[in-house]
Every structure is written in C-alpha cells, then in structure tokens.
Write a structure and sequence with these properties.
This protein is mainly β. It contains 2 helices and 10 strands.
C-alpha cells in the first residue's frame, strides 16, 4: 500500500518513528519539469526525455557521422584497432622458393608495414622480429636479409641468415633458408605495424 500522506508512529503519545512521506520534511516536494524538488527541474526534464527516448533510433557511429559515440571517437577507435594486428598466423615455413606465404593484407594497406616473426624451429625460447616498411613495395624483386643469432645444440653462439622477397601480396624465401644453419629458424607469423 503506497504512503499517500504523513504517517507517524507513536507510543504513549511520543513519536518513535520518523514521519515517512515527503510532506513530513519541510521544503521537500516532488520535482516537475517546472519546479525543483527531490531533483532539479533540469534533471527531471532529462529523466523524462530518457524515459520517452526510442532506443531503436540509436545509430552506430561511423567515420563520417556520429551515433553512440562521436565521429572523432570512432576514428580514434578504428585507428587503435589497426595497430599490430596478426596478418598471418601459424605460418611455420622456412620459407624456401616453393613455400610462398600470401599476405592476408597487402603491404601497402598496412599502417606502416609488416613484422616478420621468426622463431627457433625446435624450442620456443627465441623470437626475432624483422621490420619491413611498406615503402619496400617499391623494391619487390630484391631480397631482404636478416641475421638471427641463436644458441646451437653445443650451446655455442651461431647465426642463421634468412633471405626473403617481400612484395605487396607475398613473402617468398630462398633455397638457402632450408639448409643448415638457416633451417634452425622458421617464419612463425606476420604482424601489421
């Protein structure tokens, strides 16, 4: 049963329970869109607008129009989303001339370029990152080389030399990549940077 007027609990003519209605508090009243009360009239107007709002009218924000967020925030979110994404996962090739890796995203479409992630073939304790700027697309028929140090089975420092050609759409290796000592390191994945 809703309380519609002031109620006071008394025992032996003494008030033992506070009055339990807004009428019992001096100056306290319900808010309206034109009058302050339990909340300001401005907050009451906002609350009424929220209750009348049709949620189906909400639009997804794009780079050119606001929606649930501003255009500027959408652009920032999209740019964050594009950094350091894995383009090719679990590549696991040396690569030689016949092990061609097709890029899932063109080199020129990447923000800055790609990162070739090399790792030891037999154990998972060495990762080596080779940066290839998207500018390299101007030289697609040239080899790029990477010298990767590692510890061989005798725990001595050894070097692996990798040769690859990177075009806008592919990474192609060389025959020497599958020969010792270059076959101790393989191409694990490709990242965008």
């Amino acid at each position: 049963m809703p309380i519609t007027s002031i109620r006071t609990l008394t025992v032996n003519n003494e008030e033992v329970y506070a009055r339990t209605h807004i009428q019992g508090v001096d100056g306290l009243s319900n808010s309206t869109e034109n009058k302050d009360g339990l909340m300001s009239k401005e907050d009451k107007q906002k609350l009424n607008r929220l209750q009348e709002f049709d949620i189906s009218k909400l639009n997804e924000a794009t780079k050119i129009s606001p929606g649930l967020m501003s255009m500027e925030d959408k652009q920032k979110l999209d740019s964050i989303d594009k950094h350091n994404q894995i383009i090719n996962r679990n590549v696991n090739v040396y690569p030689n001339k016949t092990q061609i890796v097709n890029l899932n995203k063109n080199l020129t479409s990447c923000l800055n370029g790609i990162i070739l992630v090399w790792r030891l073939d037999d154990i998972d304790d060495l990762y080596h990152y080779q940066y290839v700027p998207k500018y390299h697309n101007n030289h697609p028929n040239t080899y790029i080389t990477e010298v990767i140090p590692y510890r061989n089975q005798g725990n001595k420092l050894d070097y692996c030399i990798k040769l690859v050609r990177v075009s806008n759409t592919q990474v192609v290796g060389a025959a020497s990549n599958q020969l010792a000592p270059s076959n101790h390191v393989r191409l694990h994945e490709i990242l965008e940077y």
